[in-house]
Model the fold of this input.
Amino acid sequence: MKALKILGLLVLLAAAGSAGWFLGEKQRTGGTGIGSAHKQLYTCGMHPQIIRDAPGDCPICGMKLTPIRNQPDAAAQETSSPVITVNPATMQNMGIRTGLVTKGPLKRRIRTVGMIDYDETALADVTTKFRGWIEKLHVDATGQVVMKGDPLFSIYSPDLYSAQTEYLLALERATNSGGATGDALTASAREKLKYFDVSDEQIAALEKSRRAAKSLEVHAPRDGIVVEKMAVEGQMVDAGMRLYRLADLAIVWVQSQVYEQDLPFVKLGQETVVSLSYLPDRKFRGRVTYVYPTVDDKTRTVRVRMEFHNPGYFLKPGMFATVELETELSNDAVLVPDEAVLRSGERNTVFVALDGGRFEPRRVVLGPRSADNLYQVLSGVSEGERVVTSGQFMLDSESQLRDAIQKMEKTGATETAAEVSTPGARTTEAAGRTNPVVYICPMPEHVAIQYDHPGKCPLCGMTLIPVSQETLAKLQPGGRVKYYTCPMPEHSDVHVDKPGKCPKCGMTLIPVMEAPELPKVIPLPESEAGGHQETGAHH
Done:
């Protein structure tokens, strides 16, 4: 009997101990049970890799550990949002700064080096079409400025003297005998003198004096500066020998090298600015007049030619110059600071700052880089949101960014799988495999370029339209140049039919394409267009 009483007492003590342990564990876990326990974690603001489940001091620096956040269990992790919460003390220790997502013009600035060169269309060589001897030089130094018609040198040539004599004899015969024969001989002899580049004024002087001159003056064919001089007095010259080279420096070229990835931002007629090291107080404005059609296989650059007016001859051929090209790609783009983007090779991520010390990692799609260290964002953030610009790496370490991104990717994969599981998505996918869709510009001169995504034509701004391969085969590239105009805006009224120089300022004309009638594009079935609602433009 006594043994039974002792056994019952032991059973009561064991039951009371189990109940006490259960109540204590429930109080310690916040009343959620053992399977859903939440633990308060503590970390060091200077060494975020130190994580403890109890308060205390950092084993590295001795600072007091601070609480970060409650870590949910596995079931809660699967359903929780990828938002990260950081208390204000930790944020201050991490040095987190934020910047505003803005909307504004997307400008691309290219800075490169150029070399000043002669305008090749303004070069002229002085030669003779006969053999002779130079008797006197009127222009005897390199660098001398000459005007069109100024005498350069005097030359004696037996062939030239003989041609003068023939012309005088023909004149005398025509005067004495008259008739068609005399006139024909005179015209033939006169034409021979003109083929020798004898001017009309010199022929008129010959007719007046009726005496053949021993030597004849050779005149400058155009205005310019003597950049090369090979002629000396007494020199014997052969036909075609170059004696002078003249260059007009009123307009000069600047040859520059642009990397091939920057070519989409270089356009004909685009304004450009150059500066010189010896004149740091001024800049010169010009225009892009030609983009060469080949790429240097060693430097992977394309040569770009620009033209500049050169008053005062400050731009001297052979000089190096700093070239700046700026173009506006869009006047209403979403922009984020460059330092706000975390690049991992496969994705670009930004932290969006929310209220209450919360941060949301978002994957963004970046566009071109803009001036002032900004990037265009095609998707991921909106204007007015704040993004973290400093302290992202500390935030990444403390808040386990990789786990958050994995959850985001898992959520995106689930949504994608759901979309694929719908009948409409299967139809679109099957249609894409059987009859692939491409996007083209409706302008005939741009039909030769096809794109794999919808959007705007980068050449003319028209909306790209989806077409099938069968429709694409029916469209023929075409178009023609409407006219040529001056790249200077103040001379945009210049419209000529052929390429050449602007009659007002002398710059090289650039082509303007005609806007022809739009083609009638066969609309696609909804399954082939992939749900795209835009149809071809009909004119």
